[in-house]
Amino acid sequence: MELQKIKDLLVKYEAGETSLAQENQLRDYFKTNEVPENLKPYQLIFDFSEIENKKSYEREIQLPSNKQDNKYLWTAIAASVILVVGLFFFQNKPLEMSDSDLGTVQDKEEALQKSMEALKMVSEIMNEGKEDLIYLKEFNYTKNKFIKTK
After folding, report:
1. Where are the chain's structural domains?
2. Are the C-beta atoms of residues 37 and 53 closer than 8 Å to each other?
3. Number of other CB atoms surrounding residue 133 within 10 Å
4. How many Cα atoms occupy the beta-carbon half-sphere of 4 within 13 Å?
5. What's the burial of 93, exposed, middle or buried (CB within 10 Å: 0-12/13-18/19+)?
6. d(CA 70, CA 77)
7. Dist. CA 58–CA 42, nearest whole Å
8. Which of these, 37, 46, 137, 142, could form a disulfide with 30 (CB 3.0-4.6 Å)?
9. CB 43 within 8 A of CB 35
10. pTM
């Protein structure tokens, strides 16, 4: 009868449904040497847990001081003050726009030269993209050799 009760407690133990009192009953049972062969692995588990419970840590733990935290605190405060002061001074300037800020050119020759430079730059970028199309053309040519379409 007791063996069946222990097996029922082990099923509950594996499911995580035992109370501390029931786990203590299991520990007490497995302390005895009269354990059937099929329950020997459980005896090893409970023996190991009892050995580990007896171990203690004697060394004193040194916690780090808070001086480093204060350094970061003051750094954060200083950065916040600088940010607020900077935003205050730079946000109060009125925005003024003039013809020189818009990128406009009054001289016709200079405007023509700037336009030509811009068009040349766009043309170079387009030609770089066009060079990659050669690979696509070769791919389509090779694909059409193998795949016949009507």
Report:
1. 3-54
2. no
3. 9
4. 1
5. exposed
6. 10
7. 30
8. 46
9. yes
10. 0.37
Q: In the numeric block, which tokens belong to residue 124?
A: 């170079």
Q: How many residues does the chain have?
A: 150
CA torsion, ordered 90, 96, 102, 106, to nearest 10 deg: -140
Looking at per-residue pLDDT, the higher value among 34 and 16 belongs to 16
d(CA 99, CA 135): 46
Confidence of residue 79 (pLDDT cuts 50, 70, 90): very high
What residues have CB less than 8 Å from 3, skipping those under 6 apart? 36
Quick one: CA dihedral 29, 34, 38, 43, positive or negative? positive
Cα angle 117, 96, 103 (rounded to 5 degrees) comes to 5
CA 49 to chain centre: 36
Token couple for 128: 């770089």
The answer to whether 6 touches 38, Cβ cutoff 8 Å, is: no
Signed CA dihedral, 138, 143, 146, 150: sign only: negative
